[in-house]
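R.M. (postdoc): so does anyone remember the format we settled on? I'll just put the structure tokens first.
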């Protein structure tokens, strides 16, 4: 793993833990701030998926790549309707069972592994694409850590267990980066897998969460996330 890949992997993993700390330390202001980040992260992440990941996936592996994009999209849908049935971004506000939080963690471990694959695949394309994918990953990892740790607390788990769950997501992300370096098929199809999964996470996990919220703040920060992506792309 290159130094840059390692630094990205560790920072992304730490973002999961920082998101969790906002919940486990009971810092209400940071919970609210991370909640507002959801929309911004969704805008950035979807822009990366549509403008960078998809075209690169098609360029690398053509029609087969397109099939892998669809397959990955469907696979996330399938896992969220079988294993991790109760998962949504945003703070958990109702009581859930241990079974629910445990299975949500398993589903999210797969997703966060692909977060890592996406970062490594972006770096294979170019340092700039790697940096853009990394930014999209880090932005949603804060609310992601918040979501899993609040789900754990809502199921009656201890603070340590809630933090541990977020740390496990971080470790899965590091593994995703490290294994893309080692496994040839991940180097070929990693972009396509990342595109399918990122589109699902952005459009089917994050956007529906935003649609539940009223007011102008949410749609504006969603657009601001897209705008920040284009600014970063232009600057890189
Ligand atoms: Zn819930
Ligand atoms: Zn993620």
């Amino acid at each position: 793993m290159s130094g840059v890949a390692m630094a990205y992997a560790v920072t992304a993993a730490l973002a999961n833990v920082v998101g969790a700390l906002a919940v486990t330390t009971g810092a209400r202001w940071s919970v609210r701030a991370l909640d507002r980040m959801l929309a911004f992260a969704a805008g950035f992440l979807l822009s990366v998926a549509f403008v960078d990941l998809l075209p690169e996936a098609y360029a690398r592996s053509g029609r087969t790549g397109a099939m892998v994009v669809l397959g990955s999209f469907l696979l996330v849908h399938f896992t969220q309707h079988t294993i991790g049935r109760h998962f949504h971004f945003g703070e958990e506000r109702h009581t859930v069972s241990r079974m629910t939080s445990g299975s949500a963690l398993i589903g999210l471990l797969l997703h966060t592994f692909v977060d890592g694959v996406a970062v490594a695949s972006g770096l294979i394309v170019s340092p700039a694409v790697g940096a853009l994918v990394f930014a999209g990953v880090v932005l949603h990892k804060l609310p992601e850590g918040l979501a899993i740790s609040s789900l754990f607390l809502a199921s009656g788990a201890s603070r340590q267990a809630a933090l541990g769950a977020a740390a496990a997501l971080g470790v899965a992300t590091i593994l995703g980066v490290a294994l893309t370096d080692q496994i040839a098929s991940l180097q070929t199809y990693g972009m396509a897998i990342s595109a399918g999964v990122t589109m699902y996470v952005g459009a089917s996990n994050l956007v529906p969460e935003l649609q539940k919220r009223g007011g102008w703040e949410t749609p504006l920060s969603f657009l601001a996330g897209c705008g920040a992506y284009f600014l970063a792309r232009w600057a890189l």
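R.M.: ...and that's the designed sequence above, right after the tokens. Also worth knowing: Residues 111-112, 115, 140-141, 144 surround zinc ion (ligand 2) (CB under 6 Å). Residues 28-82 form the longest helix (55 residues).
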